[in-house]
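for the writeup, i need someone to sanity check this before i put it in the appendix. the sequnce is what the collaborator sent (i think, or maybe the updated version? ugh). structure was predicted straight from it, no edits. if anything looks off just tell me and ill rerun, i have time this weekend
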Amino acid sequence: MEDIPFSIPPGSRYGLLAAILLTFSSVATSTESLFTYTVQPKDELIKMAEASFTSNEGWKEVATLNRLKDPNKIQPGQVLKIPLRLLKMVKREGVLLSVSGDVQLSGQPAVVGGLVPEGAQLQTGANSSAQVQLADQSRVTLMPHTDARLVTSQIIDFGNFDQKSQATWFTGLIRLTKGAVDVLAAKLAKRNTPLQVETPTSLAGVRGTVFRVAYEDPANQNTRTEVLEGVVRTDSVAQKTGADLPKGTGTVINPSIQRIQVSPLLEAPSINAHTVAFKPQARWNMPTLAGAEHFKVQISGFKDFSNVLREQVVDRHGQADFSDLSNGVWHVRVRGIDARTLEGFNAEATLQVMLPANTSHPAAEWVAQNDHIDTLHGEHVLQFEPLGLDASHAILASVKINRPPYVRVAKALVKPDGGPIRLNLGPLTAGENYLINLTVTQADGATLSPTNYAFDGLPAGQSLSSPLKHLASDTTLPLPASAHKSKHSKRHKAAG
């Protein structure tokens, strides 16, 4: 602690009191956040306080902290230290980055890009999730069956200070009344106070880290906190006790238990990087992991898990059930749950849900069947039935001449409506061989492996059933065996 010099008039009966107050001021400012400001021409400390401080009297504390002999005389270029707590706060909304399924924002359907103001309530239903970006760029993902409120979302208002001095000093508090949240707290953000997640029984605060908080069963009043990066401070509201949780640890807080037990998290289980699940069963055996009583399995359409569309707890000897997922390539993560219900580190993989194999076609995510081409008014019209697709899918069709330089001649985007897909491919040359690439995406973000077919252009007025010849996804029209080795790689690159 550095003492601030002061002078006491001889014989002053307030000398001791003044000394105590000034020493207290030094202690208070030695550990708190300070804002440094370079004085500009025409600046006056008292006027600045009136415009930007929570109290008009705040200038007195600034004068004391900066040892100003005369607060009315500050010079351009002079640097002032100002406690952040003296500055006014203004509200700042969060933004919804992801909305999947049934998500309510203060009682109304939530949409991507919607603003989340201070005081807003967010609720997610079954197979639903939402991700909010806060004003400090932190991201909070609400898991299925979650109810949370953005209680505080404010930044410091620097008022009439020059723009170069301004920064987003954030104060945020999320109140979780049911469910679970994953928090990615921005590491480089400036915060007036730690970003906090509050439940009825606990309070967790961080400045930059990755962690999870869950209050999934209000009846037992347990709050679970798990830290994947950084350090989290967690406190029991009822017992007035707390503990620091470093990376790889967690705790379960109950209002009736005084001692906070910090435990190591389970390691990530070992799983294959790519898993295939065949319908109609679409089951997946759980891995082996020492200490795991159960497993948490989550499904997302995105690699960063900005949405979570399915979540299930599976017994260590059980199977995850993916039978209700649409065909496609999904992202799956799984983590062990120990005897205290703490959830460990994630293992991640891609999950490909496919149709079962049968005698008519090989195992596939989807199949174009009963295909047919007509030439009408000089244009080729392709029609087929998309077995395995539904209205949540979108098909992007791209047609190229199947020879160098592989010029694209048609492109179309359509959605299944329960009937055959109809694509107008435009005027094509009779006898020319064409490559059609069909890429399917889903509303939830999952993608299907690109499907490639080859077909021949028809003379005017002719029709042909089953014109599509299925190709491997990484090849164009099959080459003769003698040319395959020398030309395959070049042809593959050009076709891409």
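The longest strand covers residues 169-184. The CA atoms of residues 62 and 190 lie 21 Å apart.
thx in advance!!
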